[in-house]
Amino acid sequence: AESLARVRAEHGNQAIYGGSYGWASAGRFHHALGQVHRFLNCIGGYTASVNTYSAAAAEVIVPHVLGLPFMKLVFESPTPADIARYCRTLLLFGGAAMKNNQVNSGGIGAHTARDQLQRIGEAGVEIINVSPVRDDTADFLDARWLPIRPNTDVALMLGLAHTLVAEGLHDTAFLERYTVGFERFLPYLLGEFDGRPKDADWAASLTEIPAATIRELARQLVRERSVLGISWSLQRQRYGEQSYWMITTLGAMLGHIGMPGGGVGYGYGCIHNMGFGGRRLPPYAVAALPQGQNPVASFIPVARITDMLESSGGELDYNGRRLTFPDIKLIYWAGGNPFHHHQDLHRLRQAWQKPDTVIVNESMWTATARHADIVFPATTMLERNDLGASGHDAYVTPMRQVRQPYAQSRNDYDIFTALADRLGAKDVFTEGRDEMQWVRHLYETTRRNAAAKGITLPEFPVFWAGEQFSIEDQVEDARFSLELFREDPQAHPLGTPSGKIEIFSATIASFGYDDCIGHPCWFDRDELLGSGRYPLHLVSNQPRTRLHSQYDHGVTSREAKIQGREAARMNPADAAARGIGSGQVVR
Ligand SMILES: Nc1nc2c(c(=O)[nH]1)N[C@H]1C(S)=C(S)[C@@H](COP(=O)(O)OP(=O)(O)OC[C@H]3O[C@@H](n4cnc5c(=O)[nH]c(N)nc54)[C@H](O)[C@@H]3O)O[C@H]1N2
Ligand SMILES: Nc1nc2c(c(=O)[nH]1)N[C@H]1C(S)=C(S)[C@@H](COP(=O)(O)OP(=O)(O)OC[C@H]3O[C@@H](n4cnc5c(=O)[nH]c(N)nc54)[C@H](O)[C@@H]3O)O[C@H]1N2
Ligand SMILES: [Mo]
User: Which of 58, 206, 414, 491 shows a CA-CA span of 20 to 30 A to 217?
Assistant: First the structure.
């Protein structure tokens, strides 16, 4: 409390970094990020963060191109039921890994992905996995594997697009009616600016997928209804905007966007319900702990934390704006593990020395906790009462406490209440409610929101004494935004300046960026497998045995390790060439 008071008095609330990115735990009330943001707002605000480590590039580019919030589009991916019924080819960039689709943010009520995928397989849809890793699609699907050189997917998409044009197969009627700017993109595709036609041979030289395969694939995709899926990993990389823009352009050229079981799935099964959620998600707002208003305007794109700490007063470009890095004196983190999630931890560790004080609430002795000045031990979700629900899932779940808090650990709420008390903000922070009063308040608010849409949730005492409750049988199948757009683009325009899909964006062109111009394109890069200094490429994908760093102490994660280290997989030929054998520790 003294540190917070001093920094506020001497430097203002902007000097507190409270972005506190992280997954935390399920539960509407005890959600650690909601707690820390509400607390900091009650004492005058903080420098915040925007976007996610999951999908930052897509979150920024997609609204310019499709006029929809990225996450809305993800939840409206073509459904497996429709794919099984209408689609003939499912082309998955980055696969649709079983390892990834066992989680939902906010909690998961039913793990149905396996059944849903099996239905697609049984329907005889051809599944093609474009990925450096074969098991990015489930083994039971018997997918065709096109191993691609990592980070070259945009070149493959361009090669497919070029083939469509060269063979006169692209859907000109769709492009005319539903898109703008194809005529600005076409000369680039044909190589009229740079003398490099983006044809299948050009794509083959970058992707290492044979040109004949690319040409045949283009014909197959356009012949019958197809779905293009794109994993978020394709934008969690340099020039990450381009793959999302280009797959949309390719989808428009194929002309299946907005048909059931056709078009593009923007993150198929990256998270369970983002692809496997179906059409029956809550049509009402699920209440969350109100965060209040943040009076501080300064923010950073979430992954710029090291840059911010290294260069206060420095500037950066963000989505057409010019931002200034604030001078951070105090960091408060609750519910995330930046020493797990950030890039280049050596740089982060140096930069982390800059603030006077780092405060962390944690349940586990994580690397981030070890890099803090003050650590508050926080309870886990098993040690408190909460409401389990989210807008991503049709279930509402009573989360009843199963054991007393361990040792001196406290709920984040109690930690922040005690701090707020010392800083004169207790009443604003608590509104006079204790844990169960908040849980009940959030439930009643949700219940009212549901009732306004004709959906009945049980009364609180019944809910609290019972088990997980599903609203699925009370919800109707939603129609997706792009289906409505296809049906009637005048009545249901997209939220872009043109109301259509923007293959050329005047807005983006006006930013004048040299790494993101007015239409999707391929940018040469020095970090490519096999080029120059890089004989190997590390894919540091999401871990199969845990959620990021969470449950790393658990038996599932520990049993998968080799001498206490994370297992790395390597092509046996590459390993043999380096004298590496199975089970050895490598650096
Ligand atoms: N190399 C590499 N890096 C990556 C990724 C990758 O694929 N490869 N993936 C990126 C992605 S997509 C993401 S989303 C991020 C994830 O990064 P994070 O979300 O930061 O990772 P988690 O391990 O889930 O961290 C959550 C932390 O919150 C703590 N916690 C849980 N519940 C509570 C609670 O109730 N109270 C408090 N105070 N703490 C709690 C947990 O103990 C844990 O330490 O990682 C990113 N980083
Ligand atoms: N078990 C488990 N599940 C998780 C998570 C977890 O930590 N553990 N994290 C969750 C979170 S927060 C998120 S955001 C999602 C992320 O979902 P994704 O972004 O889809 O997950 P990744 O595992 O990073 O990437 C999927 C696959 O893409 C492939 N890939 C990597 N680079 C390239 C490339 O350049 N081209 C192609 N074609 N393929 C490539 C990799 O082989 C990788 O296995 O996963 C969620 N699911
Ligand atoms: Mo993520």
Answer: 58
